[in-house]
From TrEMBL:
SUPFAM superfamilies: MFS general substrate transporter. GO terms for molecular function: transmembrane transporter activity. It comes from Salmonella diarizonae. The lineage of its organism: Bacteria, Pseudomonadati, Pseudomonadota, Gammaproteobacteria, Enterobacterales. It is a multi-pass membrane protein. InterPro entries: MFS, MFS_dom, MFS_trans_sf. Pfam families: MFS_1 (PF07690). This is Membrane protein. It is found in: Cell inner membrane. Its main location: membrane. Residues 1-283 form the Major facilitator superfamily (MFS) profile domain.
């Protein structure tokens, strides 16, 4: 549903308007990571882990009711179509945005999985307290997304991606120094850095991915984008988990976690290589050309 909805939405707006639209869409998406970890931690502590799955039922029912209320489809038409239009990957901005998603949001998902185990098992935080760290992450993400919506058309993708990569990498590296004595305020700062950097990159990547894509190719580009988006989450979590398991065999658990975080920070910085070579001026010219 996400690729279809994204394609329909993006087709209604010109390229210079999509950064603002992307900010609004991603603001709604922030509600899940802002609320679910803390609520999930409380449910586990008070009601048991099974209630995590029961909690999704009201949201699913509400979605069905809203779809029935808002979507009015008189008829449907079936037609054959290609599964994926791979030649679209020759578009430099789309390809760059996909690389950013693999290396930045993908690594944060991996850190979310590995880091939560680290905070609970090594730093001895309760599930509720560890989950509450997503609140400063969400606040910083909110600010980053708003800044992207405001400055993307003025600055282009390159400077925003560079700053975002550096912020998230810094936050991940700070995790290597977390101990039992680390204050909650420091942990909040770490997650705020990751939230600001990750969301600055993800919102910029989403705003720039379809900048030079023709309107007729938007559904195919949206399918590729969202396939890469889901793969980035899977790859990030799987890669860091496998790396942590491998390192545990040759070093202590705490040191293994630290080297896993260092590797994640290094991968987060990989898009900087591509960003330096990106034709930012061309992207800005494209945005100016589309303005009335």
């Amino acid at each position: 549903m996400i690729p279809v909805g994204q394609a329909l939405t993006w087709q209604q707006f010109k390229p210079h308007e999509r950064a603002g639209v992307s900010s609004v869409v991603m603001m709604v998406a922030l509600l899940a990571p802002a609320c679910s970890p803390a609520i999930g931690g409380l449910l586990v502590e008070t009601c048991g882990w099974r209630w995590i799955f029961f909690a999704t039922l009201p949201v699913a029912v509400l979605t069905l009711l809203l779809a029935y209320r808002w979507l009015n489809v008189a008829s449907t038409t079936m037609a054959s179509a290609r599964l994926l239009h791979l030649p679209l990957l020759t578009d430099r901005l789309l390809r760059f945005a996909m690389i950013v998603y693999l290396c930045v949001p993908g690594m944060f998902i991996g850190i979310s999985v590995v880091g939560m185990f680290y905070l609970q098992n090594v730093a001895q935080l309760s599930p509720a307290v560890a989950g509450s760290l997503m609140l400063p992450w969400s606040i910083a993400s909110f600010v980053a997304i708003m800044l992207t919506g405001r400055y993307f058309n003025q600055l282009g993708p390159r400077p925003l991606i560079i700053v975002g990569c550096l912020l998230q990498a810094a936050g991940i590296l700070f995790l290597t120094n977390v101990t039992l004595a680390t204050s909650h305020r420091v942990l909040m700062m770490i997650f705020a850095l990751m939230g600001a950097g990750g969301s600055l990159c993800s919102s910029t990547a989403q705003s720039g991915a379809f900048l030079t894509i023709a309107r007729r190719d938007m559904p195919d580009a949206s399918a590729l984008w969202n396939l890469n988006r889901q793969l980035s989450f899977f790859i990030g979590a799987t890669l860091l988990t496998l790396l942590l398991n491998a390192l545990q065999r040759v070093m202590s658990l705490e040191v293994a976690y630290r080297w896993t975080f260092i590797a994640a920070a290094g991968i987060t910085l990989l898009p900087l290589i591509y960003a330096v070579c990106l034709n930012n001026r061309k992207a800005l010219l494209c945005l100016k050309k589309e303005r009335p």
